Each structure stands twice: as structure tokens, then as C-alpha cells.
């Protein structure tokens, strides 16, 4: 299995749109960190909107 990159995760998250604002959660600056383990487990640090 190939290693997933943080850039691939970020590109996928860019398709996740906020329901009230026509921006992705990435473009809104809600994502603070993306960590990928050797087993391709993904941990995302983000803040939530109200």
C-alpha cells in the first residue's frame, strides 16, 4: 500500500464545504495540522465553527 500524503488529505478536505459560507474548511483556516502514520492512520487537528 502506498503512503498517503498530507497534501492528498488537504486536497480531499478542500471538498468539504461549510454549509453557511461558500468556502471549504481548509480555505476557512479551520485545519491546524494533519499527521499521517506509517499505517496511513490520519489525525486531523481542527477547530470547530459555532
The gist of it:
The chain has 50 residues and is α+β, with helices and mostly antiparallel strands. The chain has one helix and two strands, in the order αββ.
SSE topology:
Blueprint: H1 6-13, E1 31-36, E2 42-46
Antiparallel strand pairs: 1-2
- Spans of at least 5 consecutive residues whose pLDDT stays below 50 are none
Number of helices: 1
Helix/strand/pairing category: alpha+beta
Classify the beta-strand content into a percent band.
15-25%
Count of strand segments: 2
Q: What general outline do the C-alpha atoms trace?
A: elongated
> Averaged pLDDT, please?
94
Sheet bearing the most strands, described?
2 strands, antiparallel
Number of spatially distinct domains: 1
Radius of gyration: 12 Å
Question: What is the helix content?
Answer: 10-25%
Strand order of the largest sheet: 1-2
The arrangement of helices and strands along the chain is: HEE
Oligomeric form of this entry? single chain
Question: Termini, distance in Å?
Answer: 38 Å
Task: List its traits.
single chain; 50 residues; alpha+beta; 1 helix; 2 strands; 16% helix; 22% strand; elongated
Amino acid at each position: 500500500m502506498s503512503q498517503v500524503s498530507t497534501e492528498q488529505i488537504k486536497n480531499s478536505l478542500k471538498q468539504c464545504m461549510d454549509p453557511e459560507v461558500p468556502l471549504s474548511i481548509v480555505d476557512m483556516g479551520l485545519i491546524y495540522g494533519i499527521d499521517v502514520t506509517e499505517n496511513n492512520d490520519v489525525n486531523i487537528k481542527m477547530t470547530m465553527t459555532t
